[in-house]
Amino acid sequence: xxxxxxxxxxxxxxxxxxxxxxxxxxxxxxxxxxxxxxxxxxxxxxxxxxxxxxxxxxxxxxxxxxxxxxxxxxxxxxxxxxxxxxxxxxxxxxxxxxxxxxxxxxxxxxxxxxxxxxxxxxxxxxxxxxxxxxxxxxxxxxxxxxxxxxxxxxxxxxxxxxxxxxxxxxxxxxxxxxxxxxxxxxxxxxxxxxxxxxxxxxxxxxxxxxxxxxxxxxxxxxxxxxxxxxxxxxxxxxxxxxxxxxxxxxxxxxxxxxxxxxxxxxxxxxxxxxxxxxxxxxxxxxxxxxxxxxxxxxxxxxxxxxxxxxxxxxxxxxxxxxxxxxxxxxxxxxxxxx
Length: 338
Description:
Elements: H1 3-16, H2 26-29, H3 38-49, H4 53-58, H5 61-83, H6 93-126, H7 129-219, H8 230-284, H9 288-303, H10 315-337
């Protein structure tokens, strides 16, 4: 950086930073203050504020000297106003003050004619279309790159979200099926507990029948229980038969209730297993008609009577189940051949 450039920059910055309000000096000069110099000073300083440092750095020394001389000349006008004194001016103080203000006002035209081309150059440099276009392209490219990166992240997040949603749906479906299976499991457990109770009743009833039979058999050899007549013998036989019949009837009731609870327990176990395995079987059936068949079998297992070792269902329901499956098979075969 040359010495001329340093001086020019310092002189221009001095004009740019100058506070024109100090020229008024109202408290010191009273009615002779330079209030009229405030507006011309602001206009003059405004010219220098439009000159940029980058503009000065591009100019040769000959042009810098021109700017330097103009800036120093204008600043000297400010100094003359600042040095104005009522004591040293003598006669015609008002005329001298007005002369300084007029000179300051007239300096604007001369300064503008000297500096306008440098101001224009600075403006054109600051608004270089090619530079702005290059910067704009760079900004646009940066935005595009950022947009692509964000788009890739969104796509990745979208795929992750789809996977998570699929897993959530799968878990929800499995949970839903498992939740429905719990009802049958609870019912099976309840029937299992009841069957244990009735099994104890069966055991007690059986022992009661056996015990009564033994007592009856032994009583036949007890002398004081031997009937003395045919009428007494008939009464004894009738009483024994009634007691034995009641005991056998109670044993039968206990056995039937035990079998009923065991039957219901096994049926509900089948229903629970059908619900638990339905999801896996349905997922394995690609064809929708095959899924219908799986669904039909699962529904039949859940909602129809079933044969167990403790109870038998009617044959009409089983034949109806077979018929529904046969009706679905042709649809599946037709779809598979298309």
